[in-house]
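tool_call: predict_structure(chain=1)
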Amino acid sequence: MSTQRPGLGRHGLDWILMGSVLVLTFVGALLVWSATSERDTLTGGDPTAFLRKTLVNVAIGLVLMVMVLATDHRWVRILAPFVYVGSLVGLLLVLVMGSTINGSKSWVQLGGMSIQPSEFAKLAVIIGMSLFVAERFEGRSRRQVGTGEVIGMLLIAGLPAGLILLQPDMGTTLVLAATVFGVLSVAGAPAKWLLGLLAGGVFVATVAIKLHVLKQYQIDRFLAFLNPDLDPRGAGYNVEQARTAVGNGGWFGQGLFHGSQTRSGFVPEQQTDFIFTVAGEELGLIGAGLLIGLICLIVWRALVISRESRDIFGRAAAAGIACWFAFQAFQNIGMCMGIMPVTGVPLPFVSYGGSSMFAGMLAIGLLQNIHLRGAPALPTRFSAARVFTTR
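tool_result:
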């Protein structure tokens, strides 16, 4: 009798996860195409410009995913510290020589590409925290996460989070906080620390506002979220237009490339932050619900991979990725529907953007790697020599 687990093919890949990602990126490409095909100021008169760019991003992302997927699990952990340090360097470069777009200094220009290091920092924090807790506990009898371990993981997360907050990028900071909370929970952090983390987050946000770390437009967005009628032509404009677009869709939508709000260009940043409004207007409640269902499938498979992993690194990393995708999707969709403040985070695998796509695909590659290699328990310490000598 076969012992093959659900979702696995003959070669061991999680095909439910893979299929969900591929379908989601295909739908995302269509939505980006629809959102930009009539926007000559964006496309330069080429209706398919953003479609082609999106397909290139997806292709590069798939290559990155396969590279991580095929990498020996020992090398994944050996390279983890270098990935983390690289993310810090990228965030520092942003503050020194970054470009300001939409009020946030979050991009670095490399050749003809705009790279957003904070997207890669999410994955770097996950693997950094996961490696730290794995190194502390694997192969040892003591399993209780203590104060030292929690502080160490918070320091690993705190350095990039502080740099991201200085950009300032509140949306990514919130996603990172939710991700850290998930990794700490799976690692076994005491409840008092988790509650303290929530209280500390509120305190830091308050201090950031008082010290004017946040820009005025970001504060206005939060005020507009609390009261959309406060400034309907200013800070509340995006939310009002987004809710109108989603409401126009009804049950079955107005049809792809036929959304009235989308055709008119009333919703700002519709190909990136507000891409869900295109799904709501043109695909309707049914189509948008299926899109949400695909995201839920990805999160579910990440949680299953976390549960089935037999080593602490895989368990914590997969759970962190699940929290990342889940909260970021909730934040993006919520701001399109007026139930979350506008913070400018992309919808994973759907919004236009190379950095977001690359980071997401790298995370999927890591999930598949954990899934494929997670059965045997991993040694506590690794060295380059052991990689080549261990059979």
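agent: The radius of gyration is 21 Å. Proceeding to next step.
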